[in-house]
Known about the structure:
3 domains, Rossmann fold, 25 strands, globular, alpha+beta, single chain, 8 helices, six-stranded mixed sheet
Amino acid sequence: MTSTTEGAESLSVEQLSETTLLRFATAGSVDDGKSTLVGRLLHDSKSVLTDQLEAVERASAGRGQDGPDLALLTDGLRAEREQGITIDVAYRYFATPRRRFILADTPGHVQYTRNMVTGASTAELTVILVDARNGVVEQTRRHAAIAALLRVPHVVLAVNKMDLAGYQEAVFASIAEEFTAYATELGVPEVTAIPISALEGDNVVEPSARMDWYGGPTVLEHLETVPVSHDLAHCHARLPVQYVIRPRSAEHPDYRGYAGQIAAGSFRVGQEVTVLPSGRTSRISGIDLLGQPVDVAWTTQSVTVLLEDDIDLSRGDLIVPSKDAPATTQDVEATVCHVADQPLTVGHRVLLKHGTRTVKAIVKDIPSRLTLDDLSLHPHPGGLAANDIGRVKIRTAEPLPVDAYADSRRTGSFILIDPHDGTTLTAGMVGESFAAPEPVEDRADDDGWDF
């Protein structure tokens, strides 16, 4: 397969290894043009393979369109192409000489807000699209709130379809001012507003001659130059244990390793560590990476750690530096985004999954629900409906070593699961809050789930 022109395909392995990686997500309401923007970005940055473009041209011709519908480059599901909407998160990988990218194109329909949470959870930048004719709508505000909760450090407001608004500066300025004020109140640290037309290609990859009043970067230029801080390497070191390796072979009769992916920070041989929630301590006697011993391992590497002491340790335990161990607790207070169709109510019995550990839990209280229009807190709503954002208090059956989400996006997050069918109910961020709700007393629970 060949690229339409020289682009990411022409980069050497050495060049790719020297470029930084940016994970970013797109979000916006239905028909705001997310998929068209992504398609235009891929096409104009020379990141589309020839056979992919030919397939899109055939599909577009079959639908009676004169030119290729670039949205089809990302709307890969048959249902998406038939309905003209994005349903699932579409991940795309591409590169330019300046940077590598992992892109998550998320759905805009309110029914699929949960997918936006998934796509943005690991993103360092989120592009939120707004139709220039409609301005900031409820779903725009919801996506901004989710980006703020997930602590996405950079937000781009792409005011799309400027061609249908006559490329008027006043239209763009009004939308940018309203959104920036709203996002700032949410606590979004940085907003960059860019006027674009994804359909015509204005300010996506190349500057627009039809909006000469705009002097800022194009979308691609901003993506290539925005600072990327891989702060996980500097976070509190955390290793959730996924599997205990005991080959029991004649060659390795005493081998006992604890395998997992390092969630944050780094570990080194000789380091004193604590296993949570038991609190037992030991020292790292060895680290295996890809079958080879190493002295140091860091964030995102999948490793096997060996300890000097033979202690009771299993899947779900957390290995941490003894000098930097989080407190364990059975009472978790967090801000959550409820993603299931069934409501989350006080007294709801759930499973809480934190890292590799899953425990029984009860929703003890829902102190408040966020009102997206004015960012006010509705006190004691009693429940959260699909796509609601609110505060919850949860009691777990077993102690959990949780970090504040502000300190670690990986070990400060969790999901709530329906114990009956395994449905994901809620995504939670420990300690996160837009405003401090009034303190409330725990409600008693009178059945076997009262911990």
